[in-house]
Design a protein that fits this description.
Elements: H1 3-33, H2 39-42, E1 45-51, H3 53-60, E2 73-80, E3 91-98, E4 109-111, E5 118-121, H4 125-132, E6 145-148, E7 156-162, E8 173-180, E9 186-192
Antiparallel strand pairs: 1-2, 2-7, 3-6, 3-8, 4-7, 5-6, 8-9
Length: 194
């Protein structure tokens, strides 16, 4: 084969390989970030109220509640959802935000039917969701939140205290539910009315 034809054949192979690679990456990227189901499948519902210490203690038993200091307000919530037929490795994050200050609570107490599946902690999921959802504003890029490791763990009871000289009204507290994939990718976030 003459050198011109050889260079042309090599260039064609490189172009085809690059195109196949790009199509493969695009397909993987779409599949990896495409939610296996939307929020309508879970049909999540939340109730939130201010209550007293005895009521919070009873709601979280046998787990411990957060003990309020004098002047604190105790917020008690209950989140339920419909368990989907397949979870596809999806986990949930529950975030509470004071819409006046864009701050999240420092502490949560939590209880669920599967105690090991419902934990308090933090990761970057809310911050990732905030970049995609204009309604989700938080000051802390790594806030304290509730992680639900399995979608069979409904209902989740959660409690926190508002340690603020001017505690927010219930309408000022936003509950966000975030669906996260097995590699930490955020599928969607939903603001839940209460």
């Amino acid at each position: 084969m003459d050198p011109v034809r050889q260079r042309a054949a090599t260039a064609l192979v490189v172009v085809v390989a690059a195109a196949v690679s790009m199509v493969g990456w695009s397909g993987w990227h779409w599949w990896h970030n495409h939610p296996p189901f939307g929020p309508e499948v879970l049909a999540a519902r939340v109730t939130l109220s201010y209550t007293d210490q005895a009521t919070a203690d009873a709601a979280l038993r046998p787990d411990n509640s957060v003990i309020a200091n004098e002047g604190d307000r105790i917020a008690l919530g209950r989140l339920t959802w419909t368990t989907p037929s397949a979870s596809h490795g999806v986990t949930l994050r529950i975030v509470m935000v004071d819409t006046r200050t864009h701050r999240t609570p420092t502490f949560f107490a939590v209880h669920g039917p599967e105690p090991r599946a419902v934990i308090v902690g933090s990761d970057g999921s809310p911050y990732k969701a905030m970049k995609r959802c204009s309604w989700l504003h938080i000051v802390d890029p790594d806030p304290t939140m509730i992680t639900v490791a399995t979608l069979t763990a409904s209902p989740v009871i959660f409690q926190t205290t508002m340690r603020d000289p001017d505690p927010p009204a219930l309408d000022d507290l936003m509950i966000a539910l975030i669906a996260v994939g097995s590699d930490g990718q955020v599928y969607w976030a939903e603001r839940l009315p209460h």
